[in-house]
Amino acid sequence: MHLSIGSPPVDIYGSVDTGSDLVWTQCEPCPQSQCFRQEASLFDPKKSSTYNSISCFSFQCVIAGTNCSEGDCIYSLAYGRGLHGSFSSGNIATETLTFGSTSGKPLEMPKIIFGCGHNNSESPNTPSNQTGTIGLGPGSSSLISQMATSIAGKFSYCLPHEGSSTINFGGIVAGAGVASTPLIIRDHYYLTLEAISRTLLPLEYHSNLKLVMSNMIRAQPIEIKIGEPGLSDILCYNISSQPELPEVTIHFKGADVKLSPSNIFQNISDDLMCSAFRGGDANTIYGNIMQMNFLIGYDIEQRT
After folding, report:
1. For the segment 131-171, what is each residue's pLDDT rounded down to a tens digit?
2. Distance of alpha carbon 181 from alpha carbon 227, whole angstroms
3. Domain count for the chain
4. The model's pTM
5. Which CATH number belongs to the domain containing residue 18 in this structure?
6. Which GO molecular function, any one, fits this protein according to its record (predicted)?
7. How far apart are CA 279 and CA 202, in angstroms?
8. Are 14 and 114 contacting, i.e. CB atoms less than 8 angstroms apart?
9. What is the rounded CA–CA span in Å between residue 37 and residue 39?
């Protein structure tokens, strides 16, 4: 996601994450050994007239759910697990964020709480233009919560398989073919799943799903071990065998979502494709692969 930070504005590109809250970007000073490489220059808070550091005793530090160090409000975040994990730590501050708009006139949002990262790592396959993360979770420090009155608690996006798209704040998803399901808001966004199908399933459910799918696909499967604790093997197929792939329907409360094979399988190489379902711990995640090519909308006020 592209936006600008500071005065004068500096472009930043963040990975959108509905599973976390804080907006953060890499900042100066940051030794090369403590920051990942990015195409653009790091944001330098000393060059911005609207940057304000937050003290330990500020209510904004409490809102961000962070810690204190020598009077400064600091954060420390970890994402993912194992070889796919990443982290960021730094100072909590407020700054002006600038967004593009459908009218063509930039929209400025002053005094947004964000993280100025001075010690960061990237996850595998991080785009070279990425500078940080845009947290769109339900927490009080997320961009959605801080913009709530301006966007009426609404945002939507469509993730294409290739290329880029836009994320819209304030608009509703309406029209023919739209299905709605209750949104349960706690530490994350939760949906009620009434029938099987998700990208990350508890091991016992994942084993059953693998069995059903392998019986439906008339080809010899290849079992590939992920090599990470807590994850089961992935169901894979040789593409040259041209297996007939099934469609899967996700049955949420009040809404059915019919997935195409491209939402269920990923091409790993020219001759190998693997299921996007993974078995893990008790947590269940409806991930971005299954959301691709669907217009996904959140209405925080109506909780749908």
Report:
1. 999 999 999 999 999 999 999 999 999 999 888 888 999 87
2. 35
3. 2
4. 0.83
5. 2.40.70.10
6. aspartic-type endopeptidase activity
7. 5
8. no
9. 7
